[in-house]
Structures are given as C-alpha cells and as structure tokens.
Amino acid sequence: MKVINTYKLAVGYGSRIIMDQIDLQALKGQIVGLLGPNGSGKTTLLKTLGGLLAPIKGVVYLCGKDLTCYNSTELSKNLAVLLTERVSAPLTTAFEIVAMGRYPYTDYADRLTPKDTAKVWESLELVNGRGLAEKYFSELSDGEKQKVLLARALTQEPELLILDEPTSFLDLRHRYEIIEVFTRLAHEKKTTIILSLHDIELAARCCDSVFLLKDNQILGYGSPEQLLTGESIRKLYDFQGVNYNELLGVTELQNPQPPTIFVVGGNGSAVKLFRLLSRSHYGICSGIIHENDLDYQVGKSLGIEIVTAKAFEMIDEATFQKAVAKILQIHEVIDAGYPVGMTNHKNLDLIKKALGMGKVVISVRTPEESRKLFGNMADKILYCREFSELLTILSREREAKAIVMNKRNLC
Amino acid sequence: MNHKYRLTVIFPILLLTAVLVMLIANIAMGPINISVPKIWDSIFGIHRQDDIYTNIIWKIRMPRALAAAFGGAALSLSGLLLQVLFRNPLADPFILGITPGSSLVVGIVVFLGASIGLNVIHPFLLALAAFIGAMIVMIIVLATARKIKNIVTLLIVGMMVGYLCNALTNLMISFAQKEQLHLFTIWGLGSFSGFSWPETLILASVTIILTGGAMAICKPLNALILGEDYARSMGVPIKKLRIFIVIISCFLSGTMTAFAGPVAFIGLAVPYISRLSCKTSDNRVLIPLTVLLGAFLTSLCDLVARMALRPAEIPISGITSFFGVPLVIALLLRRNQSL
Q1: Within chain A, what is the greatest distance between any pair of CA atoms?
Q2: Which pTM was predicted?
Q3: Of A216, A342, B153, B186, which is most buried, counting CB atoms within 10 Å of its CB?
Q4: Cα A243 to chain center, whole Å?
C-alpha cells in the first residue's frame, strides 16, 4: 500500500522552482532515504511532503488523498516531522515537549488523559529516553534533544514520519540508537519513514530504497544495494580525490603522491599501513596482493598502484617479476606482517630479493618471527614495534640517504 | 505534582490576596490617610455619607487604584503574548514599537483635536487612537515578518519603526502650542492620576475580556515554543493564531497607553519574573500568574510613585524600572537559567 506518492511534483519557495517533475513513493513500513549534496533540495522536498510548504505544481498524495485536502488536525494525526532547525525551548521539560505530540488528540485545555500519558511514556521508552522525562530540554545534549524530538513526533502516532537529517550533530552511539529506532518502528509499527541523510553507509544499513538528488533532479531511485555504487556516489557528490567503496561502505581520500615505498601485505595486514602512510604524505605502491583480499579493496579505494594475483591462485613468475621491477624504482620496502601460506609464499622471496638489492626493509613483525621466515637475512631488516615508530624510522632513513647523496655530490 | 499544585493553586491565591491588599493600600494611603473601616463603610456601607472621604475614595482613589491594577495586568499580558509569539524574551510593547506607535497617533489626535477646537477628547476616541497606532506598527512589523524569517531582524525592524514614531512625535511637539504641549508631556511621562470611571471601566473590561481570550488560546500558544513549523505540523492554524495574538496584545497595550501614557518595563519584566520564579513555559499557568503579578507590581509602583516624595508625584516609569531592573538581573543570576 502506498502511504505517500507524488505526481509531477514541483517544489520551491514562492514561485522559484527548486525541483521539478518529482515522482516518488513510499510503501507502508518502508524506510526511504534521500541522499544528495548540500543545497540539492532535500529540505525543500521534505517540507513539501510534510505539508509545511505548498507544492508549486503537481500533487502529494498521503494515503491516496491529496495533502492539501486534509484539515490540519487530521493531517497531524497521519504525519509527523522532525526538522533540522535547532530548537530552543526554555523552561520546558522533556516530558512536556514529548506531550506536545498529543496536540491533535487533546481537548481545548490540552489536558492529558491517562491514554495520552501512556502514549508519551511509550514514545520515551521507544527512544530509550525514560530517564530524560523530568529534565529541562535546554539542559540536554544534542543527542538527547534529538531523541526527545523524535519521541514527540512518535507521540503523534503518525502513519508517515518525515525526518530531515535526523543523525546530524549526533555522536556514534546516538546515531545508531536513532537508526535502530527507525528500523524497529518500520518493522513493528509499520510506520513509513522518509529521511534525508548525509551518511551513505547509514543509508545502506537502514533504507529500503533511496533517492539520489542532485542539481534539482532525481539522479536515481532504487534499493541501496543496486544504487549505492562507487561510481554513482562519485557522480552524486562530484567526488574528486575521494572514493567510496560499496563493498566496505567506507570512503577513502585518494593518495596522489608518486610511489616511493613498496608495502608487501595480504589478509588485511596492510590496511592500517596504507592509511597511515597516505596520511603522512608518503606515496605508496603494494604487492603482491590477491584480488580477493581486503588490502586490495582498500588499496584500490586509495587509488594506489597494486601488483595483484588472481583470487585463490598461486603467484606466478610473471607477477613476481612485475613486483621486482616495481621495487627497483622505490626507496623502502615494508613488510606488513601478513600471514604466510601456500598461495602467497612468493612474497617472502620478494622481501629477500629486496634485501638482496640493498633496499631498506622495515618490518612490523618481531625479529624472532622474521628469523624463522628469512633466516640470517632477518638481521638486515629494521624492526618497529608500533606504527608511530615506523614513521620515525622512515624519516631517519630518508635523512641519512640525503646526507649520503650530499656527500657524493661534494666529492 | 507538588510543584504543579503550588503553581496552579497556591501562587494564584497568594497573588490575588496581594493584589487586594495593594488595592486597599492604594485607596487608604495618600496625602490624607483613610482608615480601612472607613473605606469599607464608604464602599459597602448602607448608610453611605456624602462626606469628603467618600468623595476622595470614589472620585479619586478607587478609579486610580483599579486602573493601576488593570493597567499593569494588561501590559504584562501583552508582553507575555508577544514574547511567546516572537519566541524571544526581548519582545515587549515598547521594543516592538507598539507603544511609540500609540503615542504618535494619540499625539496626532490631541493636537489635531485642539486645532479644531476640541479641548476635551472622549476617552473612547483616545483609546481608539492608541489602538490604531499600535496596530499600524504591528502590521508593519508582521508584514516584514513574512519576508524575513530571522526573529532578531524582526525586533530590529520594530525598534526602527518605534524610533521613527518617536521622531514624528517630537516633530509634532515642536510645532504644538503651549497648553497642548503641557498636556501631551504629562501624558508622555505616564501616570495613573486623574483616571475617570469611564476610562477605568473600559480598561478593566478590555483587560478581563482579553485575559479570557488569551486563556482560550493557551494550547496553541504552548505549541509555539518549538517554532512555527513544528506548531503547524501539529495542526496549529498559525496565521490565524498570529493575527489573534497581535490583535489581543495591541488592544491591551494600546488601551493602557491611551489612558495612562507609556509605562515602561512592566511589559518586559513581569513575564520574565513569573517565568523565572515558576520555572515553566506552560502558558496555562503563566497567563493567570503574569496578569496577577503585573497587577500587584504596578499597584505597588504606583503607591511608591505617589508616596515617596509626597505631595509631589514621581512618574511611574521611573519607579517601575527601579523595581524591575534589579529584580530581573537578580533572578537571572540566581537561576543561571537561560530564558
């Protein structure tokens, strides 16, 4: 059953159209997310769907009936909103704020019946906010305020809940708590929820369908699995130097530096190193990494060069030579401490080769472990116990090299 | 529950008693002090003697005492409603330019009336003039409100219009004749002296009726605290409510200003004081308390204005600020609570 749908809707302020020809819909118990850059018209669209702005053209149907045909009390029993504007409500307790949601149900003097009071407590319970009831709203934290305002919207017992950026300003715990409330509401109470989000990962977690809004139009509509790909997100936000990885749900800043360090990784051992070195402005390349490896996904998102091997296959000689050629061009090699097994055994040879070429090799393994793997060659490796030490070693090595170069030039 | 009981039963009863005490004190005290039994006798006594006391009580002190009480109530309620509407504790009839607007139109009526030979102007006409002045300013401010969403900007617009009204009033004064000038200057200082019974009755009935009107819209008033968008989403007819509030508060402060002249600070301070001392924003509680507190404090100020430098009188605005400023600052500091 369609709870809300629009027909050729145009939204905007006054006569200025911000978005035109919008046809969207949400079914009962669905969570629908709107994603898009700032200024793409999400708030305007949500305000129009919530009846706070009149449509410029077209119609919004709520439960099959034109939104403008509802009288205000009837509408507020079917539809509740949570807006982005910061609310200041001095000298008012959280309970009083939540109880305001009963406005369409109470008598002229706004007296709460036992049923109303029970509803207020139920809503507070839903957002885990029972303990906040007696506190003054102005003394709550941002997260608690948001929970209270959400509870207020729930007290209206709406069919449709419209939320404008409900997770902004919230810390991680409150963010997930609120998202959890949404999914529970949609699942248990069959409330339909339309919300705008800035967090692609959250959208992928909680939305049944998403709309991508950009440049005053709908760029795409569908399930998050189908729609939220690296490519579509790049288009949506005009990403430059940023990559969204749809499998991991993370966004990485690209590393634009030319590679000077070769990281030998595998099984996710290089992920933290990749991020650390990129953050410290070292250009990196990596190998030999299997295409089914986590290191491969993160490395690709960071935009670094990787010598790869096919998933679940042994590293062949050609790939090995490619990696050796790469190492020839760079200064240092880092052993990320990957687990050694059948398919990546050749990576040990790679490090031995690097040592043979006289490259600086730094390892995050313990010297004992290294000795088992590399034998006597292990003595030529530099060891660091933690990542911060790695950066110290790197800069020390680079300095030493610079001095040597200078001396050579002087001679 | 205990707190609620205190707010809805004990506070109102205490304040009502205080207002009655102040009424009696205002009737009893003056250049000639009159004993309480005597007052009782001349008001409720069967064999009322037509002596000098009865004359003083009925012709001078009673209208003035009642006017001070009702006038204070009217100003306070007007201030409270504007503060709720603008969601800003700075809003009051003075700052929003309502009182200067009233002054201007009253001035025009007084001076024009004199120039066509009307030396006594009917109190109804004065009240109407003050109301029209108040409405003109409020309509300008509200028209701006449609264009500008920012509440602080709106307050500044109100202030600007107020300055303009003051400037025009001053311009008029500079061209006025001596007698009218005196009359207008006295009016401009603000005083409850010389209230006639018709004036008092108009003020009293306006205050009583509009207090009832304000009580009737408690529910939507409370919903305004989250802002107009939220209020609308809960089914509050926001446009109608806005117009209703403006009309009520203009009527209240306009009528009061017409008869007693501009009285400062009551409209700003009394809503503060009642809100801070009750620690609530629930208008169902605040409206009766603010009305009673306004009546009490204004009566008290009028008593001090009359008695402090007997037989000379101090303008009431001087006293209200003297009382109000330290009280508000002290409350703000003690509660350390934002409004």
Answers
A1: 97
A2: 0.85
A3: A216
A4: 12
pLDDT at B134 over 80: yes
pLDDT in tens, A113-133: 999 999 999 999 999 989 999
Residues A159-175 pLDDT 10s: 999 999 998 888 888 88
Instruction: Give the residue from B156, B160, B180 showing the smallest Cα distance to B101.
Output: B160
- Measured between beta carbons, the chain A residues lying within 8 angstroms of B276 are 91
Q: How far apart are CA B103 and CA B97, in angstroms?
A: 10
Least CB–CB distance from A91: residue in B219, B226, B281? B281
Task: For residue B93, give Cα distances in angstroms to A29, B8, B13, B285, B301.
Answer: 49, 27, 28, 22, 19
Please state the ipTM of this predicted complex.
0.84
Question: How far is B173 from B108, CA to CA, in rounded Å?
Answer: 10
Give the integer Cα–Cα distance in Å for B121 and B100: 20
* Residues in CB range of B93: below 8 A, 6 or more apart: B75, B78, B79, B82, B99, B134, B249, B253, B257, B267
pLDDT digits (tens, 9 = 90+) for A218-273: 888 999 988 888 888 888 888 888 888 888 888 888 888 899 999 999 999 999 99
Which of B161, B183, B163, B160 lies closest to B171, judged by CA? B163
Buried b (16+ CB within 10 A) or exposed e, A299-316: bbbbebebbbbeeeeebe
CB of A28 closer than 8 Å to CB of A192: yes
Residue in chain A lying closest to B335 (CA): A91
Distance set, CA B179 to CA A340, B165, B176, B182, B314 (Å): 108, 22, 8, 5, 21
For residue B47, what pLDDT is reported?
Answer: 67
- The pLDDT tens digits for A298-339 are 999 999 999 999 999 999 999 999 999 999 999 899 999 999
R_g over Cα of chain B: 20
Contact A80 B222 (CB under 8 A): no
- Which chain A residues are Cβ-neighbours of B234 within 8 angstroms? 76, 100-101, 103-104, 156
The closest alpha carbon to A156, from A43, A33, A51, belongs to: A51
